[in-house]
Amino acid sequence: MNRIKSAFQKKQKGLLNIYFTAGYPRLHDTVPLLQALATAGADLIEIGMPFSDPLADGPVIQASSTAALHNGMNMRVLFSQLQGIRESVPDTPILLMGYLNPVMQFGVENFCREAAAAGVDGVILPDLPLDDYVQEYQDVFRRHNLRPVFLITPQTAPERIRRIDELTDSFLYLVSGPGTTGGANTQAAGVQDAYFQRIEDMKLRNPRLIGFGIGDKASFQHACRYAEGAIIGSAFIRALDGVEDVPAAAQRFVQSVVA
Amino acid sequence: MNPTYQHPTERGYYGQFGGAFIPEMLYPNVEELRDNYLTIFADPEFQREYQQLLRDYVGRPTPLFEAKRLSEKYNTRIFLKREDLCHTGAHKINNTVGQILLAKRLGKTRIIAETGAGQHGVATATVCALMGMECIVYMGEIDMERQKPNVYRMRLLGAEVRAAMSGSRTLKDATNEAIRDWISNPVDTHYIIGSVVGPHPYPDLVARLQAVISEEMRKQLLEKTGSELPNYVVACVGGGSNAAGAFYHFLEEPSVQLVAVEAAGHGIHSGHSAATSVLGKPGIIHGSRTLLMQDEDGQITEPYSLSAGLDYPGIGPLHAFLAESGRARFISIEDEPALKAVSECSRLEGIIPALETAHALAAIGQLGAGPEEVVVINLSGRGDKDLETYIKYADTIM
């Protein structure tokens, strides 16, 4: 069974998904970080594929991507680092998140083949349009058993949410409010809760993880009231700033959220 | 006749180029525009207001001036379409006047824009002042430095100018910041994109608003030459809005040679260039699939041109299609010949062109136009904003 599905079956509430940028803070931190996060109890792990011009990301993730590119990270390096990762991280679902252009240049078929061979379970490409996914990429994704994850925002129309729910078989990524990753949430709590509640009331087939603006135990627990779990990215990247022992910092961060 | 040059497909494709590659956060905004722009443009009340503003505010029609001394020098018949005489000094205002009316009809109260040379920023700040709308303009930190007069003009007009500090700190990064602002303000904000770039429907929307340039050219050419059709239409291309406007009503006229002039900076293969049609490969930038300067890993490379308005690593999808299909001829001009063209046009015709436009002027000698042939150059903007650069490079120019 796909690891994403098993993760949601095993634990139905309070799943923590941690995002980090491949090759950050140092080129060879990718694998130690993966291992440390899995050991510390992250339920899913998202690895960011750095891109020079990320549209949906805020300053923290953009800066980590710039640093990672400067460190020499690219798709070939990432796939070579991930080789054999399933020996040390057997069960935790791994997702790749990034933008379409580097994937297109690598070749979508090549990308899917390499990702599947490395044991990747899902892919998040925020600028991949639904129609293009269906027409051009769906077959390739399916052939390699990769699950797409799509974003939903407070402005996404109900019929589009239903279509997104039909098109995937992993989880729905609920963007908490208007803004890029790591932004302060400017929406009134009531408005945001009403949106989360509205999605919950739709009784969708896929579980939901809430992301953007989730950064600590309090915001994580709040998000978990309305969804199966939540995603933390920018706050985790910030926690790695200037740190020598990166795996230890990852352990501490996960503990601070879930303990 | 190939109708696909003028009109993209329903999903915004010109051949393989175009589309709308945007994060979900922007989907409702872009969908709202896509569903409404053609209906709004077709509304007689919109047209009445738009045409009136073009005439009474922008100063249209702009003259088509026969440049006799340039013609004599190059032994061909050269006309200059005087977009530099538009209010605010460049063609950019044709688009911003149309888009502010569009934004009002969509109920938006806040306007954002990106700018390279500052001309689009000034044009946006101007129409926002006219309509009493809040205006925020993103501009690369480097561009703010090299186009200071335009930064002050925008501020004088009441706009807030925000510096884009990431990447190359030029037009590409200003566009990233504007898109992020739009993501953060999805309901009340309209993003006035200044060129024929971005997700569908922007390339088509901006091309239609700039098409007034070639519409007037045809009428004026008929008056002055007895034919609506010239032999050549020449325009500079960064994103490509002035070129799209100058080409638009000639796209389906195969006898008219369309010439797009890109900035080659220090030389096409010098590593300091913005010649996208030569150096670019198909890729995705700012929401559309087009020709894009990038490395083998798909990371967008930083373009270079002395001219802030041409310093962009992509071109609009229509232009990518014109390049790929061969419908337009692309010429690359380096910084130095562009600077020399500034003094040539200034001294021979008494018109100081913008540095962007000077690239188009510098291509005249490469056209191979004969003595009886008619060449129209879109004089997209005036050079006042570039005076500081012209002073700095006085040794090259004089």
UniProtKB/TrEMBL annotation, chain A:
Keywords: Amino-acid biosynthesis, Aromatic amino acid biosynthesis, Lyase, Tryptophan biosynthesis
Pathway: Amino-acid biosynthesis; L-tryptophan biosynthesis; L-tryptophan from chorismate: step 5/5
Catalytic-site annotation from UniProt: 46, 57
InterPro entries: Aldolase_TIM (IPR013785), RibuloseP-bd_barrel (IPR011060), Trp_synthase_alpha_AS (IPR018204), Trp_synthase_suA (IPR002028)
This protein's record includes keyword Amino-acid biosynthesis: yes
SUPFAM superfamilies, per the entry: Ribulose-phoshate binding barrel (SSF51366)
EC primary class: lyase
Reaction equation(s) it catalyzes: (1S,2R)-1-C-(indol-3-yl)glycerol 3-phosphate + L-serine = D-glyceraldehyde 3-phosphate + L-tryptophan + H2O
Organism domain of life: Bacteria
MF terms (GO), sorted A to Z: tryptophan synthase activity
A GO cellular component annotation in the UniProt record: cytosol
EC numbers: 4.2.1.20
PROSITE patterns attached to this UniProt entry: TRP_SYNTHASE_ALPHA
UniProt keyword RNA-binding present: no
Classification via HAMAP family: Trp_synth_alpha
Subunit structure: Tetramer of two alpha and two beta chains.
Annotated function: The alpha subunit is responsible for the aldol cleavage of indoleglycerol phosphate to indole and glyceraldehyde 3-phosphate.
Assigned protein family: Belongs to the TrpA family.
Name the record gives this protein: Tryptophan synthase alpha chain
Source organism of this protein record: Hymenobacter sediminicola
Lineage: Bacteria, Pseudomonadati, Bacteroidota, Cytophagia, Cytophagales
TrEMBL record, chain B:
Protein's UniProt name: Tryptophan synthase beta chain
GO cellular component: cytoplasm
Gene: trpB
PANTHER family: TRYPTOPHAN SYNTHASE (PTHR48077:SF3), TRYPTOPHAN SYNTHASE-RELATED (PTHR48077)
Keyword Lyase on entry: yes
Keywords associated with the record: Amino-acid biosynthesis, Aromatic amino acid biosynthesis, Lyase, Pyridoxal phosphate, Tryptophan biosynthesis
The keyword Amino-acid biosynthesis appears for this protein: yes
Classification lineage: Bacteria, Pseudomonadati, Bacteroidota, Cytophagia, Cytophagales
A Pfam family that the UniProt record links to this protein: PALP
Named cofactor requirement(s): pyridoxal 5'-phosphate
Major enzyme class: lyase
Domain Tryptophan synthase beta chain-like PALP, first and last residues per copy: 59-381
Residue(s) carrying N6-(pyridoxal phosphate)lysine: 92
MF GO annotations: tryptophan synthase activity
Family assignment from sequence similarity: Belongs to the TrpB family.
Segments traversing the membrane: none
Catalytic activity, reaction form: (1S,2R)-1-C-(indol-3-yl)glycerol 3-phosphate + L-serine = D-glyceraldehyde 3-phosphate + L-tryptophan + H2O
Pathway(s) the chain acts in: Amino-acid biosynthesis; L-tryptophan biosynthesis; L-tryptophan from chorismate: step 5/5
Function: The beta subunit is responsible for the synthesis of L-tryptophan from indole and L-serine.
EC number: 4.2.1.20
Subunit comment: Tetramer of two alpha and two beta chains.
